[in-house]
Amino acid sequence: MGHLNLPKIVMRFRKKRRRSKETQEPTHHFTIAKLQAQSTMYQHDLEDVREETMQLKKQVAESDWLLCLAQTRLQNLKRLPVTEVGENRPSCNASISPRCNPVPVWIDEIWLCFEANDASLKAAERHWQHQAPRVALEVILKAIQGSHLSTFEQIRRHLFVAALQFTLERYSESMQCLAMAFGLLDHPSEPHGDHSRELVGLAYYIQGRNLMVAGEFEAAYVSFSRAQSTPGLYRMVRKYQGVVVIDSTGAVPYDPASVRSLPQPCLNTSDTKDGSMCPPVPESVSGYTMQGRPV
Fold it and tell me: 151 lies in which domain range?
């Protein structure tokens, strides 16, 4: 067996490795450039997919709105008795339809005044009704600090403060108050009685208004849907659900309860192409701007 010349073998291996590295280096640079180009292309594709996803989500929100309207309308038609003249007239039974409840008293379309509210809360409501929301906030905060409150009263006051903070455009503080209210609702230390339903509904309604301002239209629609069956909230919830659809899709939803059932003739026939009919105009969203704020 011949003698191995290790130094020569090592040198030959090093030269071969150097040549291999030189031949592979351009390929290495080419691979990096190719990967960078592919990465840029994939980023553009991802942006296109995100944009398409947003458009689909908007269409889903509008479809959900229309489906909810159709289901509500169908349920109402099943409940309405037919009179002798063949006209449908609603029955004012509050247990059947929340829309037949007595007209609720709203403050700035964000707070609903309930008869169950105690004296201190009603005093704060009066200040708010007289265009003094900051005074109302001071009154209610003093009432919270100066007395021992039941769980129900704590929740009510947290919701009241959340509504006030929303009116004062302190949306982060409003959401913090809502979080405290939801925490008490989820883990009550005592039963809420018959008022739990209205508390939950009002909490979701205020949450929906905050989410609208934040531009989270789908989440706002879901919150409004959870508040829809609460007595006294139905009409206001439906109004702002319509505003949500308009703000999120740019399309005006068709609401049979808030538009004329048939198109009305135009007084000026030059306003339409065929000079015959004008399309119905929703009344529930007139006078409102983006995010559902009154003009």
Answer: 98-253+264-292
